[in-house]
Every structure is written in structure tokens, then in C-alpha cells.
Amino acid sequence: MVSCQCDWLLPELMDVVRLFPGAETLDIVHTCTVSGEEFRNRFCIGGEEFCFTDRETYTDGTQQKSLVKRFSKLGLYRILSKRYQKTLPWGSLTGIRPTRLAYQNLEKKGEFEAFFRTLGVSEENIALTARVIAGQRGIYEKDPQSCDLFVSLPFCPSKCVYCSFITAPIDKTRQYMPAYLDALARELEAAAAQIGRLRSVYIGGGTPFALTASELECVFKMVAPLRTNGCEYTVEAGRPDVFCEEKLDLCKRYGVTRLCINAQSFSDRTLEAIGRKHTGEDVIRAFEMTKPYGFDLNCDLIAGLTGESVEEFCRSVDTAVSLAPENITVHTLCLKKGARLKEEVSSLSEGGMSEMIAYSREKLTAAGYEPYYLYRQKYMAGAHENVGWTKPGKACVYNVDVMEEISDNLAVGANAISKKLFLSEGRIERVGSPKDLLTYLQKTDSVIAEKAKLFPAFRRKSFL
């Protein structure tokens, strides 16, 4: 149990506590006082007192609050790290975007490495962050008129144990497809006036290829009038059990440039354990079917899947590399609200996660891939990260924009979150659509109205 004088600080401290299994049973009392540039943190744990004093200048109340949060979390991390004889790969950092913090320090001081060391970040992850920033050169730019378009198709053949995105397999929700496509058409018609300089289009899910070819073409026809500049165009094709040449032909005909094949693992045992209805060989066949079309391909893998050994994961990395997709994304298993896995277990163990992550970094680097984006989530196994790797010149613009939050994101469909950036003010405003399909269908008009208030009209354009 943690108690502190600031209610807003409690969740931040709890994020640190959860990094150390067993620490949630401790009685922790925290106080923080600020005197000029001095930040004094006092912790009482089991009758023992710990005090830390840190110094830094600030210019306003917002910066002061940020520093209170940073130094309070760092103090608690120091205590628990020593108590449990354990250091973590990202130290006291619990935020989901380490690179964003690094960019902020680059802008202020011209470097971030020393700052990350004060937070306990490992040298390996400091180097990884530097590589990611280097991998974003030529893509990373802040433009108040730039925008990415996301189209949500929240339908899948089945629900994997770790997934929180969909509420039911498509055979339970197909009855809503006509109404859903109509709602998308209304959202996209409204979006046509709100898109400035379009940087990328991303059709995600769910599993977009779970739709029939005619349904998928309907979506492509809606997007076509908005994408007039030939920008990057990604579709999450998903699993091999929904692949067919007719859908690949459609992607090619409508100008799709990137496809994501979400393998997750090439181990048949693992695929069965997570709820997939296909084999590793099926995934390989999907890659072979896709390659003649000339799309840039991304392969997703997840480290730490149910019961998977280090050796099995490493074999999946080897297989992915042998298929030579332009991008390979290595995720770390995470407990997500709404996922069956979160209902079955309360926490994820480190297991062989460090070995898995280290192997993937070494193997992908040796194969000529470079990291170009990374992000973290709460309740990740081993407090690691998700990393996107790319061959030279093949980085995904959409992923960089979304992870670094440097471009507006206009998102349509159920469970889609639109973001409007106010760069000069350093803030972001969001409009979220209902996750539940029926609720979304009932509230589509109100979602459209909310976004109209947030996004300015750049031009008028109707295509229905």
C-alpha cells in the first residue's frame, strides 16, 4: 500500500512499485517538499526512513510538477532496486515513449544520454534509443498541418489470449458489417475536409483481411478520394488463414504500399496455445504468396508468449529473418485490460525475456536491420519494450508519427482515437470512439461532431 500527499502522484508511484514483484505488499508513505530548486523526497517503509534531495531549475508550475514526478519515482526506484537487488532495463522510466523524453532533452541540452543514466536506464537501452533516433532521420518532422489517417476494422477470425482489441470473433459480429461500413463512409466523408498534408494511411484492426474481398474493396473505395498524393499506405493483412490472392490483388489495385503479417510466432505449439487456427508453415506460405506483389512487408513477433521457451522464440526470429521482410517488429508480451490472459494471470514473470530480447537485437542487427521506433506499455513482462526494426530506407512513416506524436492522427471506426496536436502549446487533445460495435454505431454522428470541433476544415470534399 502506498500513501502520499498528492493524489495525482499515487498512480505514478504505483507504476514503480509494480516493477518489483512483492513490493505491492509493502506499506510505503511518501512526502515531497520543494524549496526553490531543491526537491526533497522522504519515504517511510516498514519503519525505515529514506531521504533524497535533487536539484533542478524550472520556469513554471507545469515543469515543477513534472520534476516532482520524476524525482519521486526515481527515489522509490532507488529504494526498491536496492531492497530487491534488482535493476531494470529502463530504470525508473515508466512512460510509454522513452524516445519522446530523449528528444525533449536533445532540444534543451543537445544530448540525452547523461539524463537517462540518472534515471537508471541501462547502457544497452541508452544505445538502443540513440539508434532509434538515428533511424528516424528523414521522417521525424513536426508540421502543424500534417496528418495521418487511421481506419479501424475491429474484426478477427478469433480472439487471441493476449488481445484486448476485439470483443468477439467475426462470425459473432458479421451481422453488423453493413451498418459498420456505412458508419465508416460517413466518418471518412467528414474527414475529407479535415485532412491537411496527408503523410500516411493505415488500415488496422483487428484483422482487416478477415473481411470478404467485396467488403475490403468497399473500404478501399472510401479511402481512395482522400489519398491523392501517393503517400505511404499500410494494411494489416493479419493472419494466413484469411489470406487469398483476390485480397492481395485488391491491395495492389488500390495503391497499398505496405502489408503487415502478424505471425507472432512460428511455433505450432505456441500458436495453438494463444488461440490461433493456423500453423507456422501457413505463415511462411502467406509471405511467399505476398512477395510477388512487391509490397513492403512487416512481420510481428511477440516475446514471452504462453509457455514459449527461449529457444522457440529464437527460432521464430531466425525464421522471420530468413523471410527477409522489410520490417520486423518485436513485441514484449503485455497484460491488457479486456484480454483473456489478464483474467487468467495477475502478473508476467521475467522468465527468459532478457535472453529473448538480447537475441533479437543481435540477430536483427547482424541481418542489416536497424531499430526505428520503440514504445512501452504497462504490465509488460520483464519491464522491457516493443521495437520496430527496418531495412535501410524502409521505415514506416505512420509508426514514427504515432509513437513520437509529431503529426495529427485522424482515426475513424470503433475504438479509434483521434489526436490533434497543438505543437506551439505542447499539448494534445483526443477524441475516442466507443470500443463496443453497437455503441459505436449508435454514436457515430456524435463522434463525427466531436471531431469537427477539434479538427479545422482545410478543404471541402464530398465523395458519396
Architecture overview:
By secondary structure, the protein is of the alpha/beta class. It folds into 3 domains: 1-85, Double Stranded RNA Binding Domain; 87-135, no CATH class; 146-451, pyruvate-formate lyase- activating enzyme (Alpha-Beta Horseshoe). 38% of the residues lie in helices and 21% in strands. The protein has 16 helices and 15 strands. The protein has helices spanning 10-17, 61-83, 98-109, 113-118, 123-135, 170-173, 177-191, 213-223, 245-253, 268-274, 280-290, 310-323, 340-344, 353-366, 397-404, 437-454; strands spanning 2-4, 28-35, 38-45, 48-55, 146-152, 197-204, 232-238, 258-264, 296-303, 327-332, 370-375, 386-390, 408-412, 417-422, 427-432. The chain has a 9-stranded mixed beta sheet, sandwiched between helices. A 4-stranded mixed beta sheet has the order 1-2-3-4, covered by helices on one side. The protein is globular. 43% of the residues are buried. Residues 336-348 and 460-464 have low confidence and may be disordered.
What is the topological layout?
Layout: E1 2-4, H1 10-17, E2 28-35, E3 38-45, E4 48-55, H2 61-83, H3 98-109, H4 113-118, H5 123-135, E5 146-152, H6 170-173, H7 177-191, E6 197-204, H8 213-223, E7 232-238, H9 245-253, E8 258-264, H10 268-274, H11 280-290, E9 296-303, H12 310-323, E10 327-332, H13 340-344, H14 353-366, E11 370-375, E12 386-390, H15 397-404, E13 408-412, E14 417-422, E15 427-432, H16 437-454
